[in-house]
Amino acid sequence: MGKAKKTRKFGAVKRMINPKTDPRAARKTQTNEKKKETKTINGDLVKHVEQANSALYFEYNTQLGPPYHVIIDTNFINFSIQNKLDIHKSMLDCLYAKCTPYITDCVMAELEKLGRKYRLAMKMARDPRMKRLTCLHKGTYADDCIVDRITNHRCFIVATCDRDLKRRIRKVPGVPIMFITQRKYSIERMPDAYGAPR
Questions:
Q1: How far apart (Å, rounded) are the C-alpha atoms in residues 85 and 103?
Q2: What is the pLDDT of residues 32-80, one digit of tens each?
Q3: Which of 13, 16, 146, 192 has CA 20 to 30 A from 198's CA?
Q4: How far apart are CA 132 and CA 42, in angstroms?
């Protein structure tokens, strides 16, 4: 038995948007024209270059020093529990200096959303040795909050195991990243960390 022949449907074609009559297409062309306009002074292009942070000496951040200020992400607490690591002791072993862990309101909200399964992480986060940072923005997405905070203040180390957040932090110069490897805390982009495994 052969295959049954299927007749092609000639009417089933996607509707094309007419750029002259459709208002959605007209809006896109107007925004593209606005983007193409550039500022010129006496015929020369004017470029906006952000001012470099005064705390950076090339890639080395001079604002970092003991006691270190470490912002902790949600998954860093969970992975510390899985690897049976005490946060304060392991940070001390990694950096050979006193560390002050900070937790933002967004991270606390994310832990509360995770439910009863992560109540040990909530208990660790409510430890009085951990300082709280208040958030003024809407929503509870911690990654945006952390990236925004480290771009404004370069005095923090970020402790996270999230690949996407690490990728975003690497674009900000002078901010070290603490992560878990081989059941120990390690740190990248920080030459002074002698206790971190390479």
A1: 17
A2: 555 555 667 777 777 777 777 777 877 788 888 899 999 999 999 999 9
A3: 146
A4: 51
